[in-house]
Amino acid sequence: MLDCMDDLRKISDLRLPPNWYPDARAIQRKIIFHAGPTNSGKTYHAIQRFLSAKSGIYCGPLKLLAHEIFQKSNDANVPCDLVTGEERVFANEDSRQAPHVACTIEMCSTNTPYEVAVIDEIQMIRDPARGWAWTRALLGLCAEEIHVCGEPAAIDLVTELMYTTGEEVEVRNYERLTPLTVLDYALESLDNLRPGDCIVCFSKNDIYSISRQIEARGLECAVIYGSLPPGTKLEQAKKFNDPDDPCKILVATDAIGMGLNLCIRRIIFNSIVKPTVNEKGEKEIDSITTSQALQIAGRAGRFGSSFKQGEVTTMHRDDLARLKEILSEPVPPVQAAGLHPTPEQIEMFAYHLPDATLSNLIDIFVSLSQVDGMYFVCNIDDFKFLADMIQHIPLNLRSRYVFCTAPLNRKEPFVCTTLLKFARQFSRNEPLTFDWLCRHTKWPLAAPKNIKELVHLEAVHDVFDLYLWLSYRFMDMFPDAVLVRDIQKKLDDIIQIGVCNITKLIRASQSVAAPGTAEVVSEDFPLSRTQRDARVVSDRHAAAPTEALSIAVEAAGLRRAKNLRSPQLSGRQEDMKSYGRGSLANRLLREGLLTQEMLRQLESEWQDQHRNGRYGFGSKRDDQHSSKATGKKRK
Ligand SMILES: Nc1ncnc2c1ncn2[C@@H]1O[C@H](COP(=O)(O)OP(=O)(O)OP(=O)(O)O)[C@@H](O)[C@H]1O
Ligand SMILES: [Mg+2]
To answer: Does 3.30.70.1520 match the CATH number of domain 14-173?
Structure first.
């Protein structure tokens, strides 16, 4: 081990990332940074240039955004392909590549030359899990002009990075196209809802609870949350945007923060804290950041929508002052760009350490790696989780890597066990057929009757995604992509029916749940789909297993980067600490077992009972508990 230590150190030296992209270094690129607040036309102007170029690539953070540009480009008679983790759509019928492509950022090619490249939402370069993909695009895209769009907070870092490559950066600043006002009053009651309102929640259970209360008032609402399939999200958005549809209220998680074009007049933050998962994979509660709040608030009064100005407020009066504070704080500058090791580096590690498990290899790599202050190593826990899960299955290193980079949410047991079964059958060299998949998922499936069934259907949708993703990497072993895509579309329709009837499903779920049980399904974090999308697209060249090695590492671990974290992250940790200390309620909130909405409901029920002299359980012991609690509260 000691003999090869020097070699390992050399291999894991990540201090000169610009040198990883010789093709880009061989040309002189010009960087144009479109900077401004949300809804200021940054992407619009970059796309105008993309459309006028002979060839171009658009790199976006989400599948929905890539779809939007793909659509826009083809509508403007500029043939454009679409490339995401599970999908390739060619503009030309004979499957010849078009000169333009819209892709999710992890999929962009750093070998193909383009006249213009667009990198959207550049501030994501600081993202603990996905930042590497923006760094790779920025340093590695082979285009004469690179149009970068995003928050002004990223200007300095991009300029600094480009200083190391010797490339010029031109900054174009934009102003918001429509006014956005923070209201002086909170919504306080759902009775005050108006058409064009969007309530933003940070947990699925709050979504369920609020949509049910809205329906009880005789109003229809559309629902959008992270783990819904893209087709369902689009349908719900369409319904809400349609001026002739009676559905004029939207209940959504921050999944709407990037991507969808919605006709929202007013954003109402149901809460200003949100569950997150920390570096150890533990659930925590965290105040939303200024950047997140601005992104979400920026959905109101979108230019070109039916609302000429946007409004933003909170549901609860107590939160309004804090929201105003958050919105008025400056966004801290982006300080470091994410990185991941290259596939070759990990392969060389494996050569020197043939007996190490993949998970150990990654750990050793990350702990030995050296990075420059402008960079940090991204979080790689998802990869390690999968590596451990399939460790006992005999696979060669490259295939193992590909499996470990599969886009799945580790909180979905059905999807995880499916991956395990895929890997096992793959190791026996038995192709995964359509029939096998239908048997495994019990397809065909019926419309959901309650929330649990809806959640299961969402997981089956993810299993189909997983199959499609693998089919691009191991075509022979996953041969039935066409058929699977077909049933996935059908499943999307079934899920849509479920979501349209969501309040019925909630009622059905609650009638079978124990009396007083507020939770209808286990808590799911709103960003799970977004994070998964990150992994979904954490690949780039479908049929190139070596590339997949990088993907493995691309999800990335912050352990090394602890000291390089942005002030924003450290600030959030401080918030977490202060929030997390103390009472049982705070602990339950922190662990994600209780949502803000439930807590408020409990508080108000408890106060009502207290006021009326009813203590629910009636025993002396409980009375004592209650008075104790009161005493504590007063103190
Ligand atoms: N000059 C323009 N002419 C017509 N439409 C425009 C113009 N500028 C922007 N728009 C439209 O306004 C909307 C917002 O613009 P855009 O998406 O470019 O904003 P953005 O600054 O990228 O916002 P975000 O930060 O939320 O991504 C889009 O629907 C876009 O098509
Ligand atoms: Mg934009």
So the answer is: no
Q: How far apart (Å, rounded) are the C-alpha atoms in residues 256 and 252?
A: 7
The token pair at 282 is: 């533990």
Where in the chain are the domains? 14-173, 180-328, 525-606
In tens, the pLDDT along 192-220 reads 999 999 999 998 889 989 999 998 999 99
Q: Which residues contact 402 (CB under 8 A, 6 or more apart)?
A: 470, 473, 474, 545, 548, 551
Apex 396 CA angle, 413 and 357, nearest 5: 65
Residue nearest to atom 23 of ligand 1 (CA): 39
Binding site membership of 209 for ligand 1 (Cβ less than 6 Å): no
Superfamily the domain 180-328 falls into? P-loop containing nucleotide triphosphate hydrolases (3.40.50.300)
Convert the pLDDT of each residue in 18-67 to its tens digit.
999 999 999 999 999 999 999 999 999 999 999 999 999 999 999 989 99
Separation between Cα atoms, residue 586 and residue 235, nearest integer Å: 37
CA torsion sign for 284, 152, 66, 253 is positive
Whole-number Å distance between alpha carbons of 362 and 384: 8
CB of 36 closer than 6 angstroms to any ligand 1 atom: yes
Q: Which residues lie across from 116 on neighbouring strands?
A: 56, 145
> 399: which 2 tokens?
């295939």
Three-state DSSP class for residue 283: strand
Helix (H) or strand (E) holding 83: strand 80-84
Closest CA to 410 of 377, 379, 372: 379
Can you tell me the distance from the alpha carbon of 593 to that of 570, in angstroms, rounded to the nearest whole number?
A: 24
User: At 113, which helix (H) or strand (E)?
Assistant: strand 113-119
Owner of token pair 């309620």: 585
Tokens of residue 237, six digits: 């958005």
CA of 531 to the centre of ligand 1 (A): 25
What does the buried/exposed string (b/e) look like for 36-59 if buried means 16 or more CB atoms within 10 Å of the residue's CB? Answer: bbbbbbbbbbbbebbbebebbbbb
Residue 633 Cα to ligand 2 middle (Å): 46
Q: For the chain, what percent of residues have pLDDT higher than 90?
A: 60
Angle CA 283–285–286, to nearest 5: 125
Q: What separation in Å is there between the alpha carbon of 290 and the centre of ligand 2?
A: 17
Q: Which of 474, 472, 442 is nearest to 460 (CA)?
A: 442
Q: Which ligand is nearest to the CA of 291?
A: 1
Q: Please compute, for residue 419, the number of CA atoms within 13 A of its CA located in the half-sphere on the CB side.
A: 29
Coil, strand or helix at 220:
coil
The answer to whether 366 and 328 have CB atoms below 8 angstroms apart is no
For residues 181 and 310, the answer to whether their CB atoms sit within 8 Å is yes
Same fold, 14-173 and 180-328: yes
| Closest alpha carbon to 261 in 238, 282, 278 | 238
